[in-house]
Amino acid sequence: MMEMETLECKHITKRYDTGKFALRNVSFAIPAKGIFALIGRNGAGKTTLIRMLATQLMPTSGSATINGIDVVDGAEELRNLIACVPQEARAVGWVTPKQFVTSYLLWRGLGYSEASRKAVAALDRLGLWKVKDVQCQKLSGGMKRKVLVAMIVASGAKIIFLDEPTTGLDPISRNELWNMLRKLKDDHFIFLTTHYLEEAERLADIIGILDDGRLRAIGTIDDLRKKVRYPYSIKILSKVHVEKPRNGMIVKGIDENYQVVTTEKEAHELSKRLISKRVRFAMNPLTLDDIFYYIVKKPIEVESYDEEDEW
Amino acid sequence: MKDRFSQILASILVNAVYAMINYPVVLISTLLAPFSLFIVIVFVSHGQLLSVAVGGALIMTMISSGTSMQQDLSHLKNDFKLQDMVISSPTSARMYLIGMAISEIVYFLPVLLVLLILTALYISTSALGYFEIFAVMTIMFIFSVSLGFILSTFTSDVVQSWAFSGIVSTLLSALPPVYYPISYVPAVFQPVVYLSPATYAAEIVQAIVNPGLVNFSAGTIAIDWIVITAVCIITTFIAIKKSRWREN
Ligand SMILES: Nc1ncnc2c1ncn2[C@@H]1O[C@H](COP(=O)(O)OP(=O)(O)O)[C@@H](O)[C@H]1O
Ligand SMILES: [Mg+2]
Predict the structure, then answer these.
(1) If you write DSSP's letter for every residue of B175-191 in order, what string do you get?
(2) CA-proximal residue: ligand 1, atom 1 (nearest)
(3) pLDDT tens figures, A181-197
(4) Of the residues A284, B45, B105, B201, which has the maximum number of CB atoms within 10 A of its CB?
């Protein structure tokens, strides 16, 4: 049955009644295991795709299957296997975490005693034991989010959709959530969206880049790196004259700094020259930030970088 | 079967039981709701319309549970994204609708209890009469919770939800002569009040509770039954088939 563990989208297009195309002919197939991160800017179509796969929204055209089950025709069957935390979802304010997780498990069809036992166990696992009987609206933002993760953990669903699970969380809560997701990924398929590239890079086995409804790239971080011809970036932080490398280019990057992107060999040569000239610079393999920027927003290439040398 | 029971229980717990436990004040507010107009009518009529007003409160409580359902479900859908969480689970739209409808009954239990006492005190009719009142209440309940469910699934925020419930309560609560006889409505306005299904329900109940004051031909009453039954069936059908559960 291993070959069945696949998520496949075929020519998915979504046009809302407003006429807006939120997804345009999106096709891809990935193994339905581990963590898949869909990244894209606000309005890229991430929520639209996740809602469609989680059986909440109909595609305008095209089809998708998860483990061979069609998200439209097989929705009823699929709904037994999936669980979803929508963007901006919250635990219902007037109930406690224990009551909320228990109720969610009842909606999933468990009996009451099993549901409340599993709810308490999951809350404990997420460090929410102490607050399990406090009304959800009195919890901090991070804790509220954890209640939803506890709900997903307790559900036992093997296919999990999380729409921007870490947006708005403080760095510590975010790290805790990442650790939780890493633990889950061994025996779950987690489909998450994010606009934090770092998050995708740290967590995901496979990353998809969505922009203006189009899937611009998909693959492992290494696959995506290969999309950019040159693997190294030297960010010039001082004002200095730099010639365009033989293999590579000078571009204005995402942070408005000029950077030279080139081969490893030329990067080393250039770095030695820059050190001898006492120029401040940062040399790195391309980050996902850079790659994302190259893929969704073609950077402006310049022939040389020439600023008044202050040294 | 067991999982369906669980699914219904979840809705009852979240929407009624936990809300009532955590905010007992909601009990007082729902308890008072059907009695505001009731009190006015009873006082103004020097008690003459007491039995009619009790019959009116029975119908209006059923209609209020539908308005309340619409507001509750819109809130759960838009502010907590609960509907999306439930869609991506084994609970179907139908089970969610049934569970939430029962949760509204649970919510209105204290009111129903008070009304039961008032009925025992001030309405005297035959066993068939009581049964007919019960049937009208059931039909109006199913109709109004179905309508509430349909509207809630189409809302995307609270302002829109208020607009829907404003229109519905004018049509179903303010307009129809539920607490007083339709003969009190000036002739020019009579065609307008017949736009509301609640008017037909009221005619049936009023003829039972105060046959001296309110008199309709057997034909009129038969038409009343047909109208409320048809409206109820159509609304329920739309709720199950055409609600916006999985969005288009
Ligand atoms: N219900 C809707 N009706 C009309 N347009 C919508 C609706 N939902 C989203 N959109 C539009 O579709 C595009 C994609 O939205 P969305 O999927 O929410 O993007 P993301 O989650 O990546 O921020 C946006 O331009 C958004 O304005
Ligand atoms: Mg989104």
Answers:
(1) SS--SS-GGGS-GGGHH
(2) A16
(3) 999 999 999 999 998 88
(4) B201
DSSP string over A203-216: H-SEEEEEETTEEE
- A151: its two tokens: 């709900």
| Domain regions of chain B by residue span | 2-241
Ligand with an atom nearest the CA of residue A41: 1
- Cβ < 6 Å from ligand 1: which residues? A 16, 18, 20, 22, 40, 42-48
Helix, strand, coil content of chain A in percent (nearest 5): 35, 30, 35
C-beta atoms of B3 and A110 within 8 A: yes
The C-alpha atoms of residue A22 and residue A126 are separated, in whole angstroms, by: 35
CATH fold of A6-223: Rossmann fold (3.40.50)
Encode pLDDT of A84-136 as tens digits: 999 999 999 999 999 999 999 999 999 999 999 999 999 999 889 999 999 99
Nearest Cα to A50, choosing from A13, A14, A84?
A: A84
Burial A246-280 (b: 16+ CB within 10 A, else e): eebbbbebbeeebbbbbbeebbeebbeebeeeebe
- Give tens-digit pLDDT for A27-81: 999 999 999 999 998 999 999 999 999 999 999 999 999 999 999 999 999 999 9
Residues of chain B contacting residue A135, judged by C-beta atoms under 8 Å apart: 22
- C-alpha distances in Å from residue A58, one per residue of A54, A70, A208: 10, 12, 21
Contacts of A75 in chain B (CB under 8 A): 246
